[in-house]
Amino acid sequence: MMYDEVLNTMLPFLKQQYGNPSSLHKLGISSHNAIKKAKNMIASLINSRQDEIYITSGGTESNNTVIYGVASYNKNKNHIIVSSIEHDSILQPCCQLEKKGFEITYLKVDENGLINPKDVEKSINDRTCLVSIMFVNNEIGTIQPIHKISDICSKNNILFHSDCSQSAGKLCIDVKNSKLDMLTISSHKMNGPKGIGALYVRSGTKLSPLIVGGGQQNGFRSGTENVASIVGFGIACKLSKDRLLQNFIHFNKLQGYLHHEINKKITHVKLNGNATRRIPNNLNFSFFGINGEDLITKLDEYGIAVSTGSACKSNTKKASHVLKSMGLSYERINSSIRITIGVHNTMNEMKQTVLVLDKIIKELRSISPLKYKYNF
Ligand SMILES: *Cc1c(COP(=O)(O)O)cnc(C)c1O
Q: Ligand 1, residues 312, 321, 340: which to mutate, most atoms within 8 A of Cβ?
């Protein structure tokens, strides 16, 4: 759900405050200043400078900009290292580059979905121009050791980018005290409007723009800025920062309850991903003997919205590439669902979710083809 404060701040910019931020009249200047203020709030969330923040249409564009932008700037270096569990907005641009002769290393993860920083070090060669490893995975919530990885990159003079779409506003990120060169943020992952995001680019980092045209944002990202959404995104960053600890405690409490109760009440269940190196608003379970999509449909009838795999891919019916990379069995992948807890969720909703889950799982297991395998 969008924060009330976010919507209220956006509304005037959708109507009377309609000035083009590039225009020189009062309305234009007012829009320009509103963007500047919002960029300060975005910068403050990650402790960067305001002029190191570029506004994009979201996490997808920020990630595309990094992969294509670094690749096209580096004419002589054609090797990129990413993890095999990155979001598709990293993996697909990499696939496209492979067709053009780039070499991409897709680092394997362990059974908990973790990257070993030593594997990054081993994969670096003299043609490597970029390493991109996400901070938190969107399907399993695993927190990657990006600070160790960024140290390795910095030592080897290689650009390091991290997709922080899932972690920004939830975990502390401080670019002044880390060696991140670029970082992706998505507004709708922290209760801001959809279709807007940012790319942090450390000053002095060299990459080509993805979208060219009128030269807005210092020529790095052309196109008239989406003022209302930028303003909303700014407030979402400010609120997420102000409430970081409060939200963290809230998520932890709800996650802990759900995890504990599900383990207590439901048999033949396994948590996917690392139990401790995990963002507190994510749980991913396999309920054996059940098809994840059947479970989602049933839960939806009770007003409980969960997902399988990644929200962006659920209509393609492909098994999760993340769970596959972790080496999980087809059956375990097929029976998995992801439960994401939002800031607006309550303990009562968690209690209701456990009751409904227990009931539906019993029903589905009673008609499961695997009924006799597990003795349900
Ligand atoms: C959501 C998400 C994206 C894409 O962000 P959009 O703003 O939806 O384009 C990229 N990476 C990760 C890890 C995400 O969770």
A: 312
**What is the side-by-side strand order in the sheet with 159-163?**
53-56, 197-201, 182-186, 159-163, 128-132, 79-83, 103-107
Q: What is the DSSP string of 22-64?
A: T--SHHHHHHHHHHHHHHHHHHHHHT--GGGEEEESSHHHHHH
* 165 Cβ below 6 A of ligand 1: yes
Q: Whose CA is nearest to atom 5 of ligand 1?
A: 59
d(CA 188, CA 117): 30
Closest atom, ligand 1, to C-alpha of 61: 9
pTM of the model: 0.96
CA of 363 to the centre of ligand 1 (A): 34
Residue 95 among the catalytic residues:
no
Q: Is 189 in the pocket of ligand 1 (CB under 6 A)?
A: yes
pLDDT at 75: 84
Pairing of strands 159-163, 197-201: unpaired
Q: What is the pLDDT of residues 299-347, one digit of tens each?
A: 999 999 999 866 555 555 678 999 999 999 999 999 999 999 999 999 9
pLDDT tens by residue, 242-291: 999 999 999 999 999 999 999 999 999 999 999 999 999 999 999 999 99
pLDDT of residue 318: 77
307 lines ligand 1 (CB under 6 A): no
